[in-house]
Design a protein that fits this description.
This is Lipoprotein. With 136 residues, the protein is an alpha+beta fold. The protein is built from 1 helix and 7 strands, in the order H-E-E-E-E-E-E-E. The protein has a single domain, classed as Lipoxygenase-1 (Sandwich). Strands 1, 2, 3, 4, 5, 6 and 7 form a 7-stranded antiparallel sheet that branches. The longest helix has 25 residues.
């Protein structure tokens, strides 16, 4: 009789652990929004997601777009790595464009805002970079 009660107790604990794992899975994604205000055309925008795991890093290019039009907005959903990671947005534009802000939102919260550049000349030969990083 004691063995049966012990087994029933283990099954109940197992069920509650599964419920907790289901709740964790809901939090395993990161909603990313990139927003660029201003006007002009950009050289490129890239989004990198670096995952750290026991001293090793794995970097992936999630987004790489050339010749985008400003204003620009992009929404993405990324899988969160349980041991942590880094999300990095790199935006390159010409100095003749009018870029007001590069904004990075994570799960609806603004985590980075970088000021842009006003047109410095009518010749579009110089490049200007803005970058936002987010560690989790």
């Amino acid at each position: 009789m004691k063995k049966i009660l012990l087994l029933i107790g283990l099954l109940i604990i197992g069920c509650s652990d599964n419920e907790q794992n289901d709740n964790l899975e809901e939090d395993e994604s990161i909603n990313v929004r990139i927003e660029i205000t201003g006007s002009g055309h950009s050289s490129s925008i890239s989004l990198y997601h670096t995952k750290a795991d026991e001293g090793l890093t794995e970097e992936g290019v999630i987004l790489n777009e050339e010749s985008i039009t400003i204003p620009y907005e992009k929404n993405l959903s990324l899988d969160k790595h349980l041991s942590g990671g880094d999300i990095r947005v790199r935006f390159t534009t010409y100095t003749c464009n009018s870029v007001q802000k590069l904004n990075l939102y994570i799960n609806g919260e603004k985590v980075c805002s970088k000021g842009g550049v006003s047109p410095s000349s009518s010749v579009c030969s110089n490049l200007y970079n803005l970058q936002c990083n987010y560690d989790y």
